[in-house]
Amino acid sequence: MKTALLVIDVQQAMIDERPARMDEFLLNLKLLIDAAHSGGTEVIYVRHDGGEGDTLAYGTEGWQLERSLKPREDEQIFDKRFGSAFRQTGLQDYLISRGITRLVVCGMQTEYCIDTSVKVAFELGYSVVIPASATTTYSNPFLSGDKLIHYYERMIWHEPLAQVVDLEDAFSLLKA
After folding, report:
1. What DSSP character marks residue 112?
2. CB within 10 Å: which end of the chain, N or C, has fewer?
3. What is the pTM (predicted TM-score) of this model?
4. Structural domain harbouring 91
5. Half-sphere exposure of residue 132: CA atoms within 13 angstroms, side-chain side
C-alpha cells in the first residue's frame, strides 16, 4: 500500500491565532514530516484560500504555509477554496497518478477541513490514518480545543472512517 503524508491548512494566520496544543502540534507535525522524508514517503501540502479580504486570502502573509514548514521543491502544494482537500483541487487525480492508496492526515482545523477531508478520503476508498495529536483547532463557546480534538479522534474518526494511531505507529507507516 503506497502512503502519503497529507498536511492540511497549516498556514501562518491559523497558527498566529494560537490553536489548542500549538507547540505539541507543531512538534508532532515536524516529526511526521521528518519521518516521511527519511522513509521516502511523499509529503503533500494543502492550503486554504479564504477569498479576498479573508486572513487566508491567496497570496497574503496569512495564506502562506506556517514559517517552520519548508516544503521541498519536488513536493506538491494544492490550493483549495472548500473544506475538502479534494474538491476542485486536482488532489484526487494526483493521488491516482502516483498510486497512493493510504493517507496519513494531519493539520488544521480538526472539526472543519480535517474532518471533511477525512470523510471524503474514506468515501473515495482511501485507507486513512490520523496520528493522535497531529490535528488542532480552537476553543469555541461549547467545547475547548482539547475536547474537540479528543472527540474527533475517539468518537468520529476512529473506525470505520480512519485509524487513529499513536505517533510511533504513524512513524512506522511513513518509513515503510
Report:
1. I
2. N
3. 0.97
4. 2-175
5. 11
